[in-house]
Each structure stands twice: as structure tokens, then as C-alpha cells.
């Protein structure tokens, strides 16, 4: 993409590793990595899997380099910089987030909307939890934990299915979210849409 994104923020780590590892095969075209690296450098990664995939690329390595590592030479090395811990969340002013769920794909179609109030800095998952607490018959949902974080498997009793190639897609201003529900933090007045979709 023109802004340096390759796929989405989650695919960037492996894409950068692959591009760096195969750089010599691009001749005569040279790959300019500056834009892509500025994207990952500016992003606040929260998912351990995403961090594990992007870190090698940031130090000019790939997983392929593991085969040639000299572990004995690195045992005396110590980190010269510690990764700062995320600051504890303090008191945040409440914000209102608009949230809707839509199924125009399968079975009985539906569309429901609500507005919930959450502390600023809340994740989309927390917004969904408040909506479900306030109106469980409409906004109930189910999740499962994956190595990439929380994955929404069902909303309003409608479950995603690999057989039917369906999933719940989350959008803001008609654009797909680049982060999962467990890390994405909606801003005040934002409208988040959960749309039952196919791939």
C-alpha cells in the first residue's frame, strides 16, 4: 500500500522478515523498506505473537537466522535497555461509543445498535461487554483465546464457521479494524460495526 502497510498490522512482521531475507532477489528493483519500518515503529504492539514476529525484522534478522546463531557467544551479553512496562491505567473520563451488529448474510437477518459509556482507553472488548451487560438478549457474544488474542466466535447467537467461510468483521467508518477486539481502543463518539461476513 502507499502508506507502507503490507496487508495489515498483524502481517507486517513476517512480511518484513520475508522481504529482508530475500532482498537480493529484487534486482534490478530495490525494495525501499523505510516506509514499512516507519509503520511498525509507530505502532503500539500489544499482542505477544505480533511482537515476536516484528522484533526480528526491526534488528535486521529473520527466523531463518536462528539456524546460524552462536548461542555460546551470546551467553555473556546482557540487555542494555529494558522494555518499559505499560503504565497502569488511572482514572479516565467516560466516553460514549456507538456499537452495532449486523447480519444480512445468513438465516434471519438483523441489525441492532446501541451506545455505551466506558472509561476512555477501554478496549473494544470492554465496549462489547458493557453492551452485553446492558442488553444480553441482543448483544451477547462468545470468544475464544488464540495466540493472536481474543477472537469473537459468535454474536447474538450467530456463530462464525470455517465450513461456511463466515466470520464477524469489525469496522470503523466502513474500514476494517487493523487490531483485534482485545487491543483496539475506540475513541469518543466512534461507531464500531460488527458485520457478519464471508471470505
Q: What attributes characterize this protein structure?
A:
199 residues; alpha+beta; Ferric Hydroxamate Uptake Protein, Chain A, domain 1; 3-stranded antiparallel sheet; 6 helices; 25% helix; elongated
What does this structure look like?
With 199 residues, the protein is α+β, with helices and mostly antiparallel strands. Helices cover 25% and strands 26% of the residues. It is built from six helices and eight strands, in the order H-H-H-H-E-E-H-H-E-E-E-E-E-E. Helix 1 (12-21) packs parallel to helix 3. The longest helix has 11 residues, at 48-58.
How are the strands ordered across the major sheet?
2-1-8-6-7
**CATH topology assignment of the largest domain:** Ferric Hydroxamate Uptake Protein, Chain A, domain 1
Structural class of the secondary structure composition? alpha+beta
**Termini separation (Å)?**
21 Å
Number of strands: 8
Q: What would you say about this model in short?
A:
The protein has 199 residues and is α+β, with helices and mostly antiparallel strands. Helix content is 25%, strand content 26%.
Write the layout of secondary structure elements.
Elements (H helix, E strand, L loop, with lengths): L11 H10 L12 H9 L5 H11 L12 H4 L19 E10 L6 E10 L4 H11 L1 H4 L1 E6 L2 E7 L2 E2 L6 E7 L2 E2 L14 E8 L1
Parallel strand pairs: 1-8
Antiparallel strand pairs: 1-2, 3-4, 4-5, 6-7, 6-8
Organism: Pteruthius melanotis
Pfam family, one: DUF4430
Keywords: Cobalt, Cobalt transport, Ion transport, Secreted, Signal, Transport
